Every structure is written in C-alpha cells, then in structure tokens.
Amino acid sequence: MRAALGRGAVVALAGLATLGHGGAAWAHVGFAANDLYAGMFHPLLHFSTILPVFALALWLARWPPRHLTSLAVAYWGAAIAGATAGWWLPELPVLDDLLLPLALMVGVLVALDHAPPVWLAAAAAGLIGLVEGLYNVTQVRNEVSDAVLFSAGLLLVLGLIPLHLTALLHGRSHLWVTTGKRVVGSWIATAAALVLALDWSGQSVGGI
Questions:
Q1: In whole angstroms, what is the distance from residue 185 CA to residue 68 CA?
Q2: Eight-class DSSP state of 43
Q3: Cβ pair 172, 98 in contact under 8 A
Q4: 33-35-38-39 Cα dihedral, nearest 10 degrees
Q5: What is the pLDDT of residues 158-174, one digit of tens each?
Q6: DSSP state of 17
Q7: CB 68 within 8 A of CB 115
Q8: Within 13 A of 67's CA, how many CA atoms are on the CB side?
Q9: Residue range 174-195, pLDDT digits in tens
Q10: SS3 of 19, please?
Q11: Rounded distance, CA 137 to CA 146, Å?
C-alpha cells in the first residue's frame, strides 16, 4: 500500500511540475488542458479507445507469470511504437474500424476464459497496443503543440490502466473474482457488438 501511495505521489508531483509547461488549451478533450493531460485524458474519454484496454487487462490477468511478462512487453512495446509512428504516418481510417472488433474479440476470450497459444496472444496484445498508440495520436496531432508531452501522458495511461488492473487481479482464484471477470468480459463484448451493429446499420454513434 505504501509503495502504491509513493508511486501515486511521484506521478502527482510530476504532473504538477508540468502545469507551467507550454501547451495551448485545446478543445478535443472537452476542456482546457496542456498536452500532457490531453494525452492522459484522450484515451479515457472515448468508448472505442478505453474498451479494448480494459478487456486486455482482464484477459492478461488469467495468464501465468512466465507468459504475462512477454504479453505485457508485446502490448507496451507496440503502444510505444504506435504512439511514435503516429506523428509521421498518414491518418489511417481503418484504425477506427479495428478498435471495437478488438474489444469484442478479447471480451469474448475473457468471458470464455480462453487462452490461445502464447504467440497468438502476444500478437493480439501487440495489435491492441499498436492500434491504440496510432489512433490516439493521429486523431489529435494537428492540435498538439508538444508531441513529447502528449505521448508521455498517453503512454502513461495506456500502460498504467491495463497493467495495474492486471496486477490487482492476477493470481486471485476466488470464485467471485473469476466469475466477475468473465461477466465483465461478456459485458464488454456485448457493448462492443451493440455499437458495431448500430454503426453498420448506418445509425450515428459518433463521439463515443
């Protein structure tokens, strides 16, 4: 507990230290924020970006430690690569079409408590990280004044949420925990499928 509080204090102090850093307020996140906080909030305020991350966290928690490290590295490394490449690559509309299918796929795997071959799991985790990094950057890069600060905030959240949640759930074999994870996985899959169905039917679901 003390270690967790200490880490939280470090993050808070680092955030306070950036308040005076340049970075004009911009409206994409809905309120004034410098680029560090814009990067932190951007994936949190969009349904399509946060859902795959939560699904992945639940799924990673079911893997044994000998595989968990490689899966986490695959996800985190791909997220860094995507967030870096996103500043130079052209905008790819297909990224928007991949996020919810990925959430649906991983949500189903969580609900079924299924573990495919580890190489396939690493590929799935890496794909989620890559798409998250690319999408979150390409959507706002023309509005950001400091790419380094935005990327730092983005990668902090993309790493902290899934890996912290995975650490909290990993190794907990209580029936209520395992059942709860599978239920939440089914909710994620259902929500993703519903939004995809609305989107494919031509109804507007923009902004989520």
A1: 19
A2: T
A3: no
A4: -160
A5: 988 888 888 788 777 77
A6: H
A7: no
A8: 17
A9: 777 788 889 999 999 999 999 8
A10: coil
A11: 12
